[in-house]
Protein 1
Amino acid sequence: MKRSGSWVLGILALAGCLSGGNVLAADPSVPAKPMREITLVSVDFEGTKVWVPGTLVAKKGDRVKLKLINRIMTGPNTHGFAIDDFGVKVVVARETPQSVVFTADKAGLFPFHCHLHPPHIGGQILILE
Ligand SMILES: [Cu+2]
């Protein structure tokens, strides 16, 4: 008897986990379109200004929110962040993080860069089909 009782408990626990997952998936507060949030930091790496990470990934149709932080402590107070293919162009002051949202409405590999300083190393965003 005791053995079958623990079976029942095990099945109930499993059912609870499964229904819990279903409840979360059906939660109406979860937006239909995912918002993909990515934080980028501009740093000085041994004398080279670079946005990190250098490669971002999203899926076509995603809303992409980029949080941009300028942590370069020397030189100009501002650095730029631009993705020309998506009309993104932001100036980020050292003490003032910025956020920008855009829709990844086309797939492909698109460069981003600092539009204020051409030598500042940018990167790329890969939008998957
Ligand atoms: Cu720059």
Protein 2
Amino acid sequence: MKTPSEKRSELLELVTQYGSPLYIYDGHIIERQVNRLKSAFGGFDHKIHYAAKALSNLSVLRLVRLLGCGLDAVSIQEVHLGLKAGFLPDDILFTPNNAPFSEVEEAVRLGIHVNIDSLSALRKFGQKFGDTYPLFVRLNPHILAGGNPKIQTGHIDSKFGISIFQLPEVEEIVAEFKINVEGLHVHTGSEFLDAGVFLQGASILYRAAASFPDIRFIDFGSGFKVAYKDGDVVTPLEELGKQLQQSVAEFEQKAGKKVQIWFEPGKFIVSDCGQLLCTVTTVKKTPTSMFLGVDSGLNHLIRPMMYDAYHTIENISRDGGNHQIYNVVGYICETDTLGYERSLPETKEGDVLAIHNAGAYGFSMASQYNSRPRPAEVLQWKGVSSLIRERENLDDLLKGQVEFPF
Ligand SMILES: Cc1ncc(COP(=O)(O)O)c(C=O)c1O
């Protein structure tokens, strides 16, 4: 077990080796999180499909597969990444939202489980495939849950899923084309805190399941919240597992059959494993604030600006010292504050900051905004730290551009 100071030196060495800014992922934290899920839900037959959108580097996908997870993909490109990472088609669920129907057709060709989230796509599916290919249906339970409004997906104004009020229309289309509905799906929102909300979504699916005799799977989505700072309230996973065990048993008894329960966590699995390491380029004192400017910004980690997310920031170049209050800001020509009013040891230009909980929706939402290349990524697993994505350069910014024939 490494001491905090050994861990900091190791991270600083990686920055020396691979440059700054740098995304670094600890595979053992991914393993710990997967094991926590398996243990919390161990009281019933379940399967974890890792939500690729959270962090889709091929090596991370491979690790998650080795840890026994399936994959939740929201684009046909994520499906292909999953296949490349070695997932079997049967271990992938494709849940597109407003994707062209050709992606659904391609997923069927590849033998992937498909989840449909509109009446129009359901009808097209029926017309094209009838009873020849099983299907999941994503329902919108009209429950308000989730942290920031932008990650609430199961409420009545949300674009996701088929309204639970339209269940009779789903039944009509399913009957007309004899569609084999093998699964029902719901995802109420990310970062929910109350197990009761999750169970409410579950009971809506149990009731809906009565309409579809071929159901073998019920997918409760995800949204398990992790701590971003000390004292943060998180989803009570173990408590949720216990309550779900009871509700699944009751459902199975009433339905007179067994089902497998699916989950598709992203943030829970990879948030804590990741840190974005960046270097202080400017210490700027103004009449009102002390700014630490760094060689990264919302182009690499958009969560603070997009979701008002709080990410703990640590100065890994200093071990103690007098603390000061800083606003940590990026190098993008845009207000891109990474952390407001953070107490850090007195910081100098050249110091390296570690932004915590950067594994989920960090690199995967990164862009080349301001024509800034994206950082390199490193994965640590079983004593090896290995580069899993090269830092981009000017050639990457020019790739695919075609010059106008002036
Ligand atoms: C359908 C679906 N499944 C799973 C997830 C993963 O959610 P989380 O990262 O909160 O676990 C999301 C997140 O947006 C989602 O929309």
Protein 3
Amino acid sequence: MPMLEVSDLTVRYGALEAIRKVNFSVEEGEIVALIGSNGAGKSTTLRAIVGLVNATQGVTRFGGRDITALNAAARVRNGISLSPEGRRLFGRMSVLDNLLTGAYSVSSRSTIKTMLDEIYDLFPRVRERRHQLAGSLSGGEQQMVAIGRALMAHPRLLMLDEPSLGIAPKVVAEIAQAIERLNKEKGLSIILVEQNARLALRLSHNAYALEHGEVVRSGRGAELLADPFVQKAYLGV
Ligand SMILES: Nc1ncnc2c1ncn2[C@@H]1O[C@H](COP(=O)(O)OP(=O)(O)OP(=O)(O)O)[C@@H](O)[C@H]1O
Ligand SMILES: [Mg+2]
């Protein structure tokens, strides 16, 4: 049984159907990439999975349970966490306080301590900067904090919305390495949304391409990398 299974997921914003009958699944321990151009519905899909927007149709199952009726807080408690597009940190709060906002659903102090240590181990720069205002960090460092904040919820499924957006190539490589480590060493399941399709497909086990709110291609990451349609549409080949 997949860890996450999304069936016929449809989201409307007023008259606009942002995603339409989207179907996909994530197996335990898997990295799944969602690729697609601007406005394809990638962020909407993630927001619907974590319950930040209501689906107008469809069923979401997580850990064998139908979570369609659960709100965002309950979904986070169940182990789904989102690092949103554009980072959305509190710029005038310290890095540490930003991280702690991610732990609002966690009551165990020892879990909070363990997660902080894991994040600092993953991103030593975040540890060094923990008392600095988040707004004073570089874009790449802020992205590390945003991923850290999502990890503070102690998720079983981590969803990352465009972690490479607007970040220098060297830092993108560091973040990619962190994503691989979280998956390989902690067994964390990850949904990775990227406009950098090459990066996402390279990191992922399975992948889905969205266009105008619909899934138009799916397969192993390596298969999609070699697919002429994907190469032409998303890889600039
Ligand atoms: N809050 C909203 N209200 C109305 N329309 C929205 C809202 N959020 C997104 N949309 C629209 O829904 C569609 C899908 O947007 P979404 O943000 O999910 O795409 P995306 O694939 O994440 O794009 P990008 O790569 O630019 O981040 C777009 O047409 C967008 O304009
Ligand atoms: Mg988006």
Protein 4
Amino acid sequence: MNRRKFLKKSMAATTLALGSGMLSPACRKNLRSDLLSAQISGTHAIEKLSSDGYKILYYASCAPSGHNSQPWFVKINSPLDWVVGSDSTRWLTIVDPGNREVLLSLGAFVENLVQAAAAFGYDVETSILARSIHDPDVVGIQLKKINFRVNRLDRIMSRRTVKSHMLDKDLKGSDVDNFSNLSGGHLHYFPRDSEHSQLMAKEAVDNFVIQFENKQAIAEMADWTRLTDEKAVKFRDGLTPDGMEITGIAGWYVRNFLDKTDLLGDTYKNKGIEKIRQQVNQGGGWIAITSEGTGVKDLVESGRRFQRMALAAREKMIAIHPMTQTLEEQNGQKNIRENHHPTTIPQFMLRVGYLDRYPEPVSLRRPVEWFVRV
Ligand SMILES: Cc1cc2nc3c(=O)[nH]c(=O)nc-3n(C[C@H](O)[C@H](O)[C@H](O)COP(=O)(O)O)c2cc1C
């Protein structure tokens, strides 16, 4: 091993072992707030799109997506007639060959869009256009101006995926009831010490390990990882060290010294598994969001249910961490279904927990201009 390699390896072991939080996040600028505030204050020149329309799409794009792949495009037929589509160049063909997560993410985008439109005084009628899970045009959007506004843009802007510092405290009944109402009863909560919660934690770890042994799945994840700030700013999507909550010295090391091949190696794998093992036992238990079917409508609706709940959770200082590997692996799907209710289909497995402090969002988004098609 040459000297540079040796130094890199020993620094990797030390810094990754030190873990997150060694440097205050204040030492580093938040790329997301820099880029997004510049965007929303600017003017735009997209034909057929009004200034309100542009802003609505900007807020819609704050939606979560698997690997932060942002698998959406929006066709502007006329100022009030749009189509939300599925961008095949952004599909996760290895871990999500059935486009389940793509359609869930589009559902979350549509929910943000509908709630953002309400803030600008528009009612939205949605219709499912796609007949199959691979169709490009997925949801029709018709906007209608009304004399009524409900402004909940704050929570759209400040929601994020949170994986660390969850309190080991069960969710309150009133919060669970609220989430359940928002999801039309398609939500099941398992308190932290319940048998089912422990099963979900075990499945999350087991299937994470299975996925880490799958070289194609890891290569796909590596393709969506933006290690350096330069790459993050260039693509404005994917998984950044900040988004993966590799912060402080470890984050600095990963941003400056790791390259794509390191993501495929054993050090990264073992650290990842260790981190997941710690995470699954933290927090207030698990939530499953289910659907009755597996068609386009079921998946888009599940994504909307998830996002309604995630936005309400933001207001209640509740962290939501989707852990999807279980549902991406056949065995994991089967075990969760058999131990839950065989006739319902789990679409999200979410680790949840109260926070003392809700962190700022950090994951990047593509500008509206990049995903609009006129
Ligand atoms: C369908 C779906 C699946 C996801 N699966 C995972 C997952 O398995 N593990 C994880 O850490 N985050 C998962 N996430 C969260 C995304 O990584 C996250 O939404 C994305 O990086 C954008 O970050 P933000 O939610 O903070 O805006 C998932 C999100 C969605 C919508």
